[in-house]
Design brief:
Order of helices and strands: HHHEHEHEHEEHEHEHEHEEHEE
Radius of gyration: 24 Å
Largest sheet: 6 strands, parallel
Strand content: 15-25%
Strand order of the largest sheet: 2-1-3-4-5-11
Structural class: alpha/beta
Number of helices: 11
Shape: elongated
Length: 320
């Protein structure tokens, strides 16, 4: 019975079928620890994120868990609390307990990520480093879509509330903004860098109003929600006086009033893709220097963006 369950390819198909039928009737469940002694695998995968409270990362976790469960793996999660110095330390500690690790939106420098000092397979998500397998989002194209949308509404002075200085995706967004600004003859006002939290958006709102911009793009939806809160407290109408956009399309972005225009990233798909890459690496079916998958982003137009307001309808600071 043991061989039929653990090494079915070595057992006669008819015998294997009888054993599997008997196992189902008896409600047999294989012992993962015992199986691990044979295979050398733990049956666990690890996920390290900067902030699990951010729905962007929890959605990635859901996608990863779904794919892992289908492959009979469990997922361990560690949160660095936006502390880049904790990433490598957590990774090395987690490597002893799992078969592979997903390092999500790491803040560490590229040099540190290129040589993580562990034999455990590691896949990066939302970060691309040349010699590491990774899954990323086309954030630069997302900004192209965002700026072109705002330009079509007449906006030519657009503020960008930047995220963490060490965020790779923030750099990609800034690259997309610069490229599209030239094509649309738009002026991008760089504000930041701000923490990628609700409070970061609250702190940036007054600067956005004072910048003279008629529209503002936030690093992520959570920051955009902070912007909307502060603008509402100041009596600045959105989008009547100032248009606001976010990034990521987290669940609550459609629940705000007005609903938030944003750039959607397929986070659930990304979570599944990282598990697929890890399993390829574990099975020796992949070249670690050639595995990179970029997922498309998509503009989601809702109610926080509108046509550029007439000068006498803009916030007071803008008309000074």
């Amino acid at each position: 019975m043991s061989r039929a369950l653990s090494m079915p390819e070595l057992v006669n198909p008819a015998t294997r079928a009888r054993v599997m039928s008997a196992a189902r009737k008896l409600g047999y469940q294989p012992n993962r620890a015992a199986r691990g002694l044979i295979t050398g695998r733990t049956g666990n995968l690890g996920l390290i994120v900067p902030d699990l409270a951010n729905p962007f990362f929890s959605t990635i976790l859901k996608g990863m868990q779904m794919a892992a469960r289908a492959a009979d793996y469990s997922v361990f999660v560690a949160d660095t609390d936006e502390d880049a110095s904790a990433e490598v330390e957590l990774l090395r500690a987690l490597a002893k307990q799992v078969d592979g690790i997903v390092l999500c939106s790491p803040r560490s420098v590229d040099v540190g990520l290129a040589d993580l000092g562990t034999d455990t397979p590691v896949v990066l998500i939302n970060r691309h480093v040349d010699n590491r397998p990774s899954v990323t989002f086309d954030s630069a194209d997302g900004m192209r879509q965002a700026v072109e949308h705002l330009a079509a509404l007449g906006h030519r002075r657009i503020a960008y509330v930047a995220g963490p200085r060490t965020s790779w995706s923030n750099g990609e967004r800034e690259r997309g903004l610069r490229q599209t600004a030239t094509a649309t003859r738009s002026d991008i006002v760089h504000l930041g860098y701000f923490p990628p939290f609700f409070d970061g958006g609250v702190a940036a709102a007054d600067l956005a109003v004072a910048s003279g911009a008629t529209a503002v793009i936030a690093y992520n939806d959570v920051v955009a929600l902070g912007l909307l809160s502060r603008l509402g407290a100041r009596g600045v109408a959105v989008p009547g006086q100032l248009s606001v956009m976010g990034c990521d399309d987290i669940g609550m972005s459609a629940m705000t009033h007005p609903a938030l225009t944003t750039v959607s990233a397929p986070t659930h798909e990304a979570g599944r893709a990282t598990v697929a890459l890890l399993l390829q690496l574990l099975d020796g079916e992949a070249d670690t220097t050639a595995l990179h998958r970029e997922l498309p982003t998509q503009l989601i137009v809702r109610a926080t963006t509108g046509v550029v307001p007439a000068p006498d309808h803009r916030p007071a600071e803008v008309t000074r």
